[in-house]
Amino acid sequence: MTEELQKGLEGVLVAESELSEIDGDEGRLIYRGYGIEDLAKHASYEEVIYLLWYGELPDAEELDSFTDSMVAERSVAEDILDTVGQLAAADENPMAALRTAVSMLSAFDPDADEPATDEDATLRKGRRITAKIPTILAAFARMRDGDDPVAPREDLSHAANFLYMLNDEEPDDVLAETFDTALVLHADHGLNASTFSAMVTASTLSDLHSAVTSAIGTLKGPLHGGANQDVMQMLKEADDSDRDPIGWVENALEEGRRVSGFGHRVYTVKDPRAEILGERSQELGEAAGTSKWYEYSTKIEEYMLEEKGLAPNVDFYSASTYYQMGIPIDIYTPIFAMSRSAGWIAHAAEYVEDNRLIRPRARYTGPEDQQFVDVDER
Ligand code: COA
């Protein structure tokens, strides 16, 4: 047994997986062997979920039947929507609201008590969870603004239906396709912190709702999924203060703060997802007649590379992309969860196939041989 401390489990191999692979030095990401650039360009989010869960891309018939089965699960029980409304009224953090609502879904899931090792039941639950997250999230975002939730439609894609439920307006093709691409790009990413958290929960043979709830709590942190909204806050603060965005970044670095959207545990070069989302952000800016957010972003990217040798990660360009789509800033991280649920579920199901309880150790550095003293004598 190794005695070398691997803080943050950096580089430690804990499992075998056929799901996704990151080459951090080449800036390459694949899902089951398919390059992320190809999937972003040619595959829908539904095809990518199928690929991750069932091992191969669906043919047309399989895709239709899988899509129908997801669509059929979009609506959410009234009791859950009531709870979501209460959370919205209490001004709950959107990720916390999503965590609570996903946990509650198990009360209404006919397979809730099926063991984690029953792969079919796990994937049925996975389908329900993934299909319902957009409905929960759109309802939350609307209800906190005093608007009624919008019921899901059956004739729209996963991506388009979310934007429709959020805005009560069918998105145009550009918005729907851009959002679909963002979902494809975020669907899986090796053993990132939230996926690992889902796997740890699954490894105890707990249920899928628990695994996904653990993962949502983990994604919420600013070092992980929370970074995308921090990026947009940064861009807006720089804009509001009429300061060159570089001034904002210089100041942050001088104060020893991290610049969200930069750096990565695995990538040493630019995250390929940032490359693709950067293009989308630019296109949206050009279509709207102002490339301000994209230009701010590229200036910061150049500066960070020169000064710190750090390249952007996926969160850097998803921020300006979502902003230009009119999505509220604090919904960016829940959107990450909406997509990543596909990867969490795939990894949880894959891991329990050859399960081993995940249980590392800490090197004990506390005192030894303490003498117990009774409470009123301390
Ligand atoms: N801004 C400024 N400096 C950064 C930085 C950032 N975003 N990310 C890393 N660094 C610096 C660290 O300060 C450290 O410098 P030092 O060696 O002089 O102390 C060095 O780069 C290595 O960072 P480290 O914390 O060891 O990397 P990590 O693998 O633990 O961290 C992240 C990876 C993602 C947590 C980190 O890059 C980060 O905090 N990024 C901002 C949050 C973010 O965008 N998260 C989304 C990830 S997809």
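^ coenzyme A complex. Residues 119-143 form the longest helix (25 residues). The CA atoms of residues 229 and 329 lie 6 Å apart.
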